[in-house]
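S1.2 Input.
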Amino acid sequence: VSTQSHGAFLFLLSVNMSSTGAGYDLSTTTFSPDGRVFQVEYACKAVDNSGTAVGLKCKDGVILGVEKFVLSKMLVPGTNKRLFHVDKHIGMAMGGLIADGRQLVKRAQSEASNYYSTYGHPVPGKVISDRMAMFAHAYTLYWSVRPFGAAALMGVYDEDGPQLYMVEPSGSCLRYYGCAIGKGKTAAKTEIEKLDLNNLTVREACYHVAKIIHSVHDDTKDKEFELELSWICPESNFEHQMVPKTIRDEAQARAKADLERDEMQD
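S1.3 Output.
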């Protein structure tokens, strides 16, 4: 696109906004009068419309859990996954548009590989979280691109111990003890705050994550879902792995039984 064409586009955009008061959501380079970037807010809305993802930093590791909707009965179990392996010591849970999420995962894998090739040791959590935040933020700065409609929870175990980060479409990245994204994030955060994470093991947290995700799932409105769990802890030799099916099924069955009992008591 030529500079002249771009200038004409910006002129027509300014005329439209000045005459109608609208149009501030047509580009990420345009702030609204009250300082908002609507394109970024719309990207965050895409994350809020997806299945709930939960991350917990426990005393001996990190656990990630995802409410993965089963979009069709013809889907093969295990497809359309939302938990990804970045490096031996790093896992990611995605919320939002899964295609956008895969691009974030691919970038994270590339950053981890390049860091190891350059420095000879695995990338620290602080470094890869900052780099992913800068990558996401870059897509909010130019009119020719759009923000990623996905957010990521990153579980890391390095020399500083277990860590949990959340990268948002805006490029914001913060470190948490526990966090959630997706349509059930508000209720999930309320339940997370009730947990004593400093004294909770990852094995024990499997039950709590399963219970939180099942409790925020709306059976009347939402589709059926498949629970995905992954962890980095002593049982996985401090490497990111999917939680074994037997442990996941046991935690899920216990969570369902406790929720049904609570409903009957109410």
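S1.4 Remarks. The two ends are 63 Å apart (CA to CA).
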